[in-house]
Structure formats: structure tokens, C-alpha cells
Write a sequence for this structure.
């Protein structure tokens, strides 16, 4: 998406980032040009090659990992080290374009925006995906992923004076309809409905005088949350779709896929395993409760 914007001659006055968008936004704010895009492409290419392995696979199924003790599946230090190594700057005041990123303040259940001081701790807080990475402590306060509350934060851009708003959303909210045959399906459907509502609600609050350009992701992948192997394909799909959108005003229909492990059924098997694990734990808890009585 950023490559398409650069080629179209779009230059940002300021950049806002949330979650993984905070990392990409900071990288582009440091170098808002072709060199910045190339740097980000190199970072994601490294992750696609497993160098470093950001979320190492274990012999234990992810469903079982979710059930174990501890606050997160992965050590965030690998990501922090990568950012220190690859980003061109380490402080907000060194960025070429004004940038701020958002995290969720756990104690107050509210947005917290970072725009000064050290850059990488703020990025780690904004991208502290619950269960995947532990909460980030900054100044005695705990922060988790900024996308917990909202995903695009258009209200912040409007408040900052945006008249042309370019949204680079990679959440893939389309094409998620599925039959509900298990309790897990119902929970998944509720999650996607909540995400769609938050997106629509945020966009509905943008005033008419602010022109919204919602760039296209180009595909609707079925990838495990920890599968970075298809990153180059995702990048190319988004570039081609967004370039066409900027050129013609219309994006092509999203491609279904790519899939994890070459097998589209893997995602369904993953969900079934999680559902089975949760059911097993619920049954165990019920038995313990009865014995206690």
C-alpha cells in the first residue's frame, strides 16, 4: 500500500499507527519515500524467511499453548531486537514526518497516544497483541495492543486536521461468513461482527469535508496468526490492488487466500482443536467443582 502511495506521489503530513500499523507507520515516517518502503519490505521479507523467527513454533499445539499458565505465548524481545536493528531512528523527534501511535491503557480501558520520547517501547506497547505478547510496562502503566479498542482511529486523524485520510487497514474484514455449527463458530462470528462494527462506526464519524481513501489489501488470506511465510505474496496483492484503486478509483475483488501450510482445511482444524481444548478444560473444571461440593 505504501509503495502504491509513493508511486502516486502522495506525501503524508502526519502518520498515525495502531498495532502492526504502528511499526509500519514509524518505519515510513522515518523515511517517507521509496527507501522507506524498501526498508519495510526487507523487514517483512526477513520475517517471511524466518530470520528472525518472530513466533517460534512448538511441538505443542497452539490450542494447548493457550491453555497453559503464563501471560503470553511469545517473548517480545525478538521483535524489539529486530526493530532496534532495522529502524532508521529510535526517537520520535528523529522522524522525518510527525508520527504518533496508540496503545490500550489496561488500568483505564482507554486510548493512550505516544508521540515523544523513545520510539521502540511505544511501538512494542501498540503491538502487544493479547495472549501472543505480554503487556508492555511504560512509566508504571501497563499497555496492550491499540487495536483492542479501535483499529483505524479515524477520529484522531480528523481531530489533527486531516482533510484527505488514507487508511491502510490490513485486517481483512471481508469474506468471513461461515455456518455456525459449534459454540466456537458462534464466538468467532461475534468477534468478526464486533470488528466490522467498530470499523463502520469509526468511518461514520468522519465529517463530509474529510475525503477518505480506503486502500485495498488485495486478498482475504486464511493464515495462522503466527504464519509469516506468505508475506511477500500479501505485499504484492496489496500493492497491485491499491495501485489500481489509486489509478482508477476502483479496487479489484479480493483474492481468496493464500492459505497456511498449502491446505485450506488447516484453519478449520486449528479452530476445531481450540474448541476441543476449551471443551475439555470446561469439563475438567466442572468435575472439580462437583467434587468440591
Amino acid at each position: 500500500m505504501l509503495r502504491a502511495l509513493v508511486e502516486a506521489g502522495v506525501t503524508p503530513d502526519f502518520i498515525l499507527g495502531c498495532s502492526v500499523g504502528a511499526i509500519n507507520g514509524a518505519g515510513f515516517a522515518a523515511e517517507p519515500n521509496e527507501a522507506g518502503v524498501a526498508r519495510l519490505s526487507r523487514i517483512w521479507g526477513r520475517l517471511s524467511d524466518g530470520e528472525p523467527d518472530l513466533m517460534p513454533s512448538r511441538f505443542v499445539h497452539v490450542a494447548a499453548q493457550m491453555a497453559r499458565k503464563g501471560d503470553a505465548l511469545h517473548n517480545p524481545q525478538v521483535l524489539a531486537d529486530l526493530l532496534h536493528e532495522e529502524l532508521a531512528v529510535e526517537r520520535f523527534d528523529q522522524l522525518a514526518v510527525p508520527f504518533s501511535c496508540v496503545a490500550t491503557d489496561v488500568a483505564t480501558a482507554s486510548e493512550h497516544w505516544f508521540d515523544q520520547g523513545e520510539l521502540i517501547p511505544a511501538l512494542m506497547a501498540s503491538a502487544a497483541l493479547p495472549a501472543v505478547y505480554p503487556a508492555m510496562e511504560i512509566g508504571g502503566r501497563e499497555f496492550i495492543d491499540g487495536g483492542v479498542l479501535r483499529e483505524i482511529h479515524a477520529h484522531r486523524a480528523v481531530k489533527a486536521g486531516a482533510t484527505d485520510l488514507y487508511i491502510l487497514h490490513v485486517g481483512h474484514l471481508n469474506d468471513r461468513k461461515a455456518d455456525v455449527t459449534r459454540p466456537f463458530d458462534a464466538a468467532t462470528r461475534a468477534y468478526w461482527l464486533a470488528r466490522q462494527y467498530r470499523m463502520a462506526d469509526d468511518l461514520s464519524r468522519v465529517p463530509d469535508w474529510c475525503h477518505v481513501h480506503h486502500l485495498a489489501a488485495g486478498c482475504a488470506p486464511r493464515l495462522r496468526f503466527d504464519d509469516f511465510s506468505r508475506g511477500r505474496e500479501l505485499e504484492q496483492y496489496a500493492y497491485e490492488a491499491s495501485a489500481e484503486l489509486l489509478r482508477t478509483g476502483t479496487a479489484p475483488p479480493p483474492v481468496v487466500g493464500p492459505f497456511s501450510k498449502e491446505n485450506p482445511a488447516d484453519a478449520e482444524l486449528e479452530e476445531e482443536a481450540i474448541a476441543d481444548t476449551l471443551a475439555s478444560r470446561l469439563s475438567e473444571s466442572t468435575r472439580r467443582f462437583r467434587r468440591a461440593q
Summary: The chain has a mean pLDDT of 86. The two ends are 58 Å apart (CA to CA).
